[in-house]
Design goal:
Blueprint: H1 3-16, H2 23-50, H3 61-90, H4 96-128
């Protein structure tokens, strides 16, 4: 699977498994973080691998690194979404103070989930931009030598 295909697959999975205000939503956020961590590790490894000479079929290391950075931002947003989600899913909204705090938790949750979505979109955009391969990454043609003639001593 290409790097862009992997980002698209994770994005589709995140889109299909919504974050809800129950145990399933909490499970989904943790699952999303896990998927994003694996994808980020792959991008970072591919970027390091791309630094070796003559590697074909990978985006440039700079592109992979930029995409991994955006994925890291998505992980950070999902991690920050955990606190309000845990509060909303595990605390009964019985007291007046809890009810007054609830909109703030909902707002914080929405801000971080939207931020994660923007970071994923930025990771995808970084991978879609075609950058010319550096001449150094293309294999150099073998030098042509004239046939060697041995002299008798």
């Amino acid at each position: 699977m290409t790097a862009l295909g992997a980002v698209d697959a994770v994005t589709a999975d995140i889109r299909d498994h919504h974050v809800t205000l129950d145990g399933t939503g909490l499970f989904n956020v943790i699952r999303h973080i896990d998927l994003l961590c694996h994808l980020t590790a792959r991008m970072a490894a591919d970027a390091e691998y791309q630094l070796a000479p003559n590697i074909a079929d990978l985006p440039p290391a700079k592109t992979l690194g930029a995409s991994a950075g955006h994925l890291g931002q998505a992980i950070a947003h999902y991690t920050q979404a955990l606190a309000p989600l845990i509060t909303l899913t595990t605390t009964a909204q019985d007291t007046l103070q809890q009810k007054l705090d609830s909109p703030g938790h909902h707002s914080s949750l929405r801000i971080h989930l939207d931020g994660a979505g923007r970071a994923l979109a930025a990771a995808r955009t970084a991978l879609k931009v075609r950058q010319p391969l550096a001449a150094a990454s293309a294999p150099a043609p073998a030098p042509r030598h004239a046939p060697t003639v041995r002299r008798r001593a």
